[in-house]
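Hi everyone,

Forwarding the result from last night's run.
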Amino acid sequence: MKTKKQNSFLSNVKSVSLAVFIALLIRSFVAEPFNIPSGSMKPNILVGDFIFVSKWSYGYSKHSLPFSIPIIPKKIFHKNPERGDVVVFKTPEDNRTDYIKRVIGIPGDKIRIINGQIIINDEKIIRKKVNDFIDSDNNISLKRNRQYIEYFENFQIEVLDIMDNGIVDNTKLYEVPEGHFFVMGDNRDNSQDSRFDNIIGYIPFENLVGKARFVFFSLENSRFLQLWKWPKSIRAERIFKPIK
């Protein structure tokens, strides 16, 4: 015969198990939080941003699940990303590491970068110099980085161009294969992306985890658990900021 203490313990186990199960369902099929550890998407996404990624945007694959458990054989309920979407994906190199970049090329596109400017299907993406981006990450010293607006057909984005003649300012011609996407970081000279085909290359559709939607929390020059630093570190102006 079970004691009152045993019944209470079993009830607690059931409640915790149900809560974990619901949390895993939400994480796998609705939305997942991510923390941004690098500056490859500056000026639009900063180091220390915490973002929500919608998992339903492009459908579901094994990479939608924790640890990429292979119980979903192919992409289901799929919808292609659009040029300009900011996406989180598993790198083709190891199918484990999460990266965040912007979709620049879709299947069938021919892309080349010449003197730092993107050319898609023989059309140059016009860009305009705007005020410098003031970078204060790491609290060492303020840095001024060159900032531009790039004008695509249906959208425009702010990007950084730190230097001339960077190692990927002039590239070969990329032809995006079917079922793949060409991605770049908004911090053009400080991003490992599809321009590095020996590291990232084209992103298979099934490797897309989801679409970055908004920043739900942001800390400058501190870690999440360093609560004593929050009063000076919270970027209140970035909380609930949409990602464009």
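The radius of gyration is 21 Å.

Cheers,
N.
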